[in-house]
Amino acid sequence: xxxxxxxxYGSGNLRxxxxxxxxxxxxxxxxxxxxxxxxxxxxxxLPGVGAFADCMNGVKSIPGMxxxxxxxxxxxxxxxxxxxxxxxxxxxxxxxxxxxxxxGWIDGEVVRLTASDATLKIPHMGWNELKIERPHxxxxxxxxxxxxxxxxxxxxxxxxxxxxxATTDYGxxxxxxxxxxxxxxxxxxxxxxxxxxxxxxxxFLEWRP
Length: 209
What we know:
Helices cover 26% and strands 33% of the residues.
């Protein structure tokens, strides 16, 4: 079984993620809003563009989708990758336009970026360097200093530092990647991060957590 499910819940940006996964070597990709497809997938990717509450509501509005994700990822241990807001949805709560419950797979909160340097604009948009906090199979062949592409105004602050895989500096340390068990996420967009992003996606497709 080599099916990668790319979850379609109306958040956009699916085609570039699909193309990048194909370039990275995915044998079969299903862009899907069908929980039955998620249930049989070997790997799951949850993208996300927009506000936390809108994205969370988009996932919850698909009958059976949250349950299918929980069964596949939490119970059966399928490799999972959240991208941008897709990573933020893993948190306990998002604090964008009020407090909104997330999936709660990673203990933490999603809060507005607060750069200490007043010249740094919010949203954080553009290329920034990764600082790798600990080794991980998803980062094989990627070193501290590699440049990746960000577009965001909020960040996931994990309660457990062990869940933080990489950071970037934007007026202070900002979470760039998280990972726990078979669950991982990137604040940056690997599908827009050229060779580094493709390497990360290739690593994800080969990952056996």
